[in-house]
Design goal:
7 strands; 116 residues; alpha+beta; seven-stranded antiparallel β-sheet; single chain
Length: 116
């Protein structure tokens, strides 16, 4: 990992971006962030139950992976990777705002995501 940036956009949710050196280390960083998460579904949708993981596309091309999961703190999380940008990011929201978090992610940058 070469850099970490944490922010809260005015119209979004708290998010942490991790910059890696290449796609291989990005995939590894994504897997490390999810090592304690039990994935039970092959999708992330607008409703619970969570604990899903799938790939997503951006601008019509495969971009990376996205996982939706609950945290030990009671919040819900989206963790995603973008291999061409060599980033992994994680955003969180209270369970009641999970649908809004997912919609925010679909239009947040860089670049917007569309689960496939």
């Amino acid at each position: 990992m070469v850099a970490v940036v944490a922010c809260r956009p005015a119209d979004g949710f708290p998010v942490v971006y991790l910059q890696f050196v290449d796609g291989v280390s990005t995939r590894g960083g994504f897997d490390v962030l999810l090592k304690d998460v039990r994935i039970s579904r092959n999708a992330c949708g607008p409703t619970v139950p969570l604990n899903g993981r799938t790939t997503y596309s951006a601008a019509g091309r495969d971009a990376g992976s996205v996982a939706c999961h609950g945290g030990s703190d009671g919040d819900t999380y989206l963790t995603w990777s973008n291999e061409s940008l060599a980033i992994v990011a994680r955003a969180s929201a209270p369970p009641a705002e999970y649908g809004e978090l997912l919609e925010w992610w679909r239009t947040a940058g860089p670049p917007p995501g569309s689960a496939v």
